[in-house]
């Protein structure tokens, strides 16, 4: 409901100007960002053209009442207009001394360029004469009138902009001129008649001459623009609720197009790309605001330093308008100090006087955000804690990976999902074998697949980046790529892959194996050819902010790492241990897969043990390396989890290879393949079920873990306390059977080596029943790690590899707030985690609790983990810094829900 005015009537309009205002910057929800900041600048005594804001509550009312306005609104707008007129010495709609206004949108969150604006409102065939007389410049008046007709007709009457552009171009051609500035008053008068004719033909009625009709047409157009497709899309991408609505700001016009002592411009108080502390921006002499933004004329630099750097021969504002430049510098100092953040400002200079039209916290790159936060803290404008809260954790992704040089030309051939950040260039390969061959030959490649599976792990490892035509943000390719820190673009449905011909086709372009391709995992773009890259720099500011974050967070941050390379990368990024080592990825390396297949094809336990004995030394060495790299930090190793059929051959060529390597008959291999194939492997013969049916697998892995722990402790001198994790349990009975095997193996290794073993056995809580029975399971389990990828699949009954087809409509319609595989579903899956935590702790107060699903690196989910009291989060190596910052923000009480 609307705010109450002094007489108890609903207040829908807030005035500002002449050094005072009815609003202030804290009233963003009611006045929108622009209105709140215009009020604040007025209160600060800065030169702001007077005006008023129609509140966001009117927008809500407008849509709730079939596009009708509150009954009191008209009178309040008229009263506010009269006040603006009194301050400017003009009257709205007056023939002798007309007040002209701009009408702009202003939502609570900045939505640059998404909604509509109308300038020079109040001009008509009569008031244009008065404007020409008072300005002493007929050309300026008619230039402003033709701009108004173009803008108003487009925004309010729905006449396409290009209709006016074509008429203007034809006219300029007939006159033999190139620039708008070469046209005089008489030219504009002629064009205005042409423009009015266009409006009559396209709109079906004459261009409105009444100032009140123009004003209400523009106000309605701004409210209507809240629901136009581009605004809706922007809100969807930036998690801005539709219910917020937009405000409308009506403000006295000041003119930047009144000759050479007038100008308009945009400036940032710091460089939004680098964060450098220097006025950064552009301006245009004798122009209006849209000229700078529209790119019709090339703007000039504000500072002399920037002009020299840009090698521009056009004078800077500092040289051309020194008084206005000095005033802008004074104001920018006041605003940055007041808002304690980098400001993005719009200004107009009318006949030598500077006016401020807007200020807001400026959008910036991650690199700039870091530098600005650290610098503002060093300058004493903000505290360390505020600096931590100023940087969006997810944006750090931009800093950790190579990116495409912004100056490089992009030949975009397709777009998909930005599944793993960073960019990569290489030659196209369509299978893992070719990827490995490329790597050996020291050539860079991009692995292009319809979708990837665990057996593509070596190809993914060998490639610079991965491109898939199927799968979403949490598909196998996306999850593994993020873990490896490799760029990935997934779900590019427009690409057709022909494995046989080794070609990919999209929109008339066909590329073959060996052709160069670039993927941008930060935008989801697929580019033809090679593109220049920029390498990441983890500067001093990064280390500084991370140090502050670590001092404030209470949760530990571990990594999901399966290889020594992953572990080293994660340590460099500040990981405090390994929260998940997936042992199955180690099974695909080189000769091991032959022994694994031998084990699966064996007829009895004896045969399986014999094959497993060949894998044992490899596993032991892998674990010893991980323990040594982590040097005393905790390492959680998950026993074999995926179904066995994933390790079996799939193609005829692979079957032939297995026959050759193992000597097992082809019939027997194919029979075993049929035997192990499953309709729904996700819910099939996997996890602890393998260890119960084939205990020798768990025994071999446990032996490898404990022997490696003894070896690493000797080599590093740091005590190793392995955490052995049993996957996919739903009952204590399963856990106890597997735990007994692990304990027996620990005892055996201890007796054989004479070493005292310190270790823990815990489980992955990834099934709803396990969360519900957590109290019982905790009687024997010493730690829980919430596997939220599978817990999400089993709780919601959604396969993450197939969900991309319908999750879009689900989030758009508000059924789900976000993709539940990206940001944890707090109400459902989160409730199961809460239950697991509470029941587990009730049984065992010191139980160690962590999370190792993809959610461990998602800022909103990290906030949830803090709230439920987990001891640590574990995420892929390249997300460790993101989790460290998110954990610090969560500890400082930032509500991160929905910001992921």
TrEMBL record:
NCBIfam families cross-referenced by the UniProt entry: PRK05878.1, pyru_phos_dikin
Catalytically driven reaction(s): pyruvate + phosphate + ATP = phosphoenolpyruvate + AMP + diphosphate + H(+)
Gene Ontology molecular function, alphabetical: ATP binding; kinase activity; metal ion binding; pyruvate, phosphate dikinase activity
Co-factor requirement: Mg(2+)
Residues reported to bind substrate: 582, 638, 766, 787-790
UniProt record similarity statement: Belongs to the PEP-utilizing enzyme family.
PEP-utilising enzyme C-terminal domain ranges (all copies): 539-890
Role summary: Catalyzes the reversible phosphorylation of pyruvate and phosphate.
Cited PROSITE patterns: PEP_ENZYMES_2 (PS00742), PEP_ENZYMES_PHOS_SITE (PS00370)
Domain Pyruvate phosphate dikinase AMP/ATP-binding: 67-306, 322-374
Keyword presence, Magnesium: yes
Protein name: Pyruvate, phosphate dikinase
Keyword Heme on entry: no
Record domain PEP-utilising enzyme mobile: where: 443-524
Positions bound to Mg(2+): 766, 790
Keyword terms of this UniProt record: ATP-binding, Kinase, Magnesium, Metal-binding, Nucleotide-binding, Pyruvate, Transferase
Entry's EC annotation: 2.7.9.1
Classification via Pfam families: PEP-utilizers, PEP-utilizers_C, PPDK_N
Active site feature: 476 (tele-phosphohistidine intermediate), 852 (proton donor)
Source species of the chain: Methylobacterium gregans
């Amino acid at each position: 409901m609307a705010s109450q005015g002094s007489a108890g009537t609903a207040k829908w309009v807030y005035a500002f100007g002449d050094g005072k205002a009815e609003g202030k910057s804290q009233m963003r929800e009611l006045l929108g960002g622009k209105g709140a900041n215009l009020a604040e600048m007025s209160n600060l005594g800065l030169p702001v053209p007077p005006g008023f804001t129609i509140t966001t509550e009117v927008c809500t009312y407008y849509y709730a009442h079939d596009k009708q306005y509150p009954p009191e609104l008209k009178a309040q707008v008229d009263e506010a207009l009269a006040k603006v007129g009194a301050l400017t010495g003009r009257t709205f709609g007056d023939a002798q001394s007309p007040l002209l206004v701009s009408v702009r949108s202003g939502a609570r969150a900045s939505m640059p360029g998404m909604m509509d604006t109308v300038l020079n409102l109040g001009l008509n065939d009569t008031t244009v004469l008065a404007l020409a007389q008072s300005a002493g410049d007929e050309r300026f008046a008619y230039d402003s009138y033709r701009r108004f007709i173009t803008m108003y007709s487009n925004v309010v009457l729905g006449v396409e902009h290009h209709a006016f552009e074509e008429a203007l171009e034809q006219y300029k051609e007939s006159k033999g001129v190139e620039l708008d500035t070469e046209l005089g008053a008489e030219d504009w008068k002629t064009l205005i008649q042409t423009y009015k004719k266009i409006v009559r033909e396209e709109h079906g009625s004459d261009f409105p001459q009444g100032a009140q009709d123009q004003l209400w047409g523009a106000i309605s157009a701004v409210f209507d623009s809240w629901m136009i497709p581009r605004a809706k899309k922007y809100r969807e991408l930036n998690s801005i609720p539709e219910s917020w609505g937009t405000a409308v700001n009506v403000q006295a016009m000041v003119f930047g197009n009144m000759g050479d002592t007038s100008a308009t411009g945009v400036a940032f108080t710091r460089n939004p790309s680098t964060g450098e502390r220097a006025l950064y921006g552009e301006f245009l002499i004798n122009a209006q605001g849209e000229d700078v933004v529209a790119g019709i004329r090339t703007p000039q630099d504000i500072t002399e330093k920037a002009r020299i750097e840009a090698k521009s021969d056009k004078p800077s504002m500092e040289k051309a308008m020194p008084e206005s430049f000095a005033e802008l510098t004074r104001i920018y100092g006041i605003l940055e100090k007041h808002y304690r953040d980098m400001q993005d400002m719009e200004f107009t200079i009318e006949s030598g006087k500077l006016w401020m039209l807007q200020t807001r916290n400026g959008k910036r790159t991650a690199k700039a955000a870091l530098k600005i936060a650290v610098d503002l803290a060093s300058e004493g404008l903000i505290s360390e804690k505020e600096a931590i809260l100023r940087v969006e954790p997810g944006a750090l992704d931009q800093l950790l990976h190579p990116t495409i040089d912004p100056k490089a030309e992009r030949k975009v051939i397709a777009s998909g999902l930005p599944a793993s950040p960073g960019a990569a260039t290489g030659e196209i390969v369509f299978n893992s074998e070719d990827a490995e061959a490329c790597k050996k030959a020291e050539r860079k490649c991009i692995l292009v697949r319809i979708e990837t599976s665990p057996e593509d792990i070596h190809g993914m490892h060998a490639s610079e980046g991965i491109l898939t035509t199927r799968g979403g943000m949490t598909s196998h390719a996306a999850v593994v790529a993020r873990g490896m820190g490799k760029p990935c673009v997934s779900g590019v449905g427009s690409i057709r892959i022909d494995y046989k011909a080794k070609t990919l086709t999209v929109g008339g372009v066909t590329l073959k194996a060996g052709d160069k391709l670039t993927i941008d995992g930060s935008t989801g773009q697929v580019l033809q050819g090679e593109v220049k890259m920029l390498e990441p720099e983890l500067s001093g500011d990064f280390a500084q902010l991370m140090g502050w974050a670590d001092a404030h967070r209470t949760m530990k941050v571990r990594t999901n790492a399966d290889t020594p390379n992953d572990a080293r990368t994660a340590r460099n990024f500040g990981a405090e241990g390994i929260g998940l080592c997936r042992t199955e990825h180690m099974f695909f390396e080189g000769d091991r897969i032959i022994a694994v297949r031998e084990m699966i094809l064996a007829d009895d336990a004896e045969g399986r043990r014999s094959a497993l004995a060949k894998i044992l030394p490899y596993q032991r060495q892998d674990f010893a390396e991980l323990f040594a790299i982590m040097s005393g930090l905790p390492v959680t190793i998950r026993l074999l989890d995926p179904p066995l059929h994933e390790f079996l051959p799939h193609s005829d060529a692979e079957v032939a290879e297995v026959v050759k390597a193992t000597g097992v008959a082809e019939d027997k291999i194919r029979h075993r393949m049929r035997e192990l194939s499953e309709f729904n492997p996700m819910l099939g013969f996997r996890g602890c079920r393998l260890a119960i049916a084939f205990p020798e697998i768990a025994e071999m892995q446990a032996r490898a873990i404990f022997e490696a722990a003894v070896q690493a402790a000797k080599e590093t001198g740091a005590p190793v306390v392995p955490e052995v994790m049993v996957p996919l349990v739903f009952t204590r009975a399963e856990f106890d059977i597997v735990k007994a095997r692990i304990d027996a193996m620990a005892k055996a290794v201890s007796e054989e080596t004479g070493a005292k073993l310190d270790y823990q056995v815990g489980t992955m809580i990834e099934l709803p029943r396990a969360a519900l029975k957590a109290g019982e399971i905790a009687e024997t389990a010493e730690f829980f790690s919430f596997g939220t990828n599978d817990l999400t699949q089993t709780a919601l009954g959604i396969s993450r590899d197939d969900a991309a087809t319908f999750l879009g409509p689900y989030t758009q319609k508000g059924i789900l707030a976000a993709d539940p595989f990206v940001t944890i579903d707090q109400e459902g899956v989160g409730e199961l985690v809460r239950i697991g935590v509470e029941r587990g702790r009730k049984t065992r107060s010191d139980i160690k609790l962590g999370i190792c699903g993809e959610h461990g690196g998602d800022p909103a989910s990290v906030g949830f983990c803090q709230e439920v009291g987990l001891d640590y989060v574990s995420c892929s190596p390249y997300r460790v810094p993101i989790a460290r910052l998110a954990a610090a923000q969560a500890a400082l009480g930032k509500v991160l829900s929905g910001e992921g």
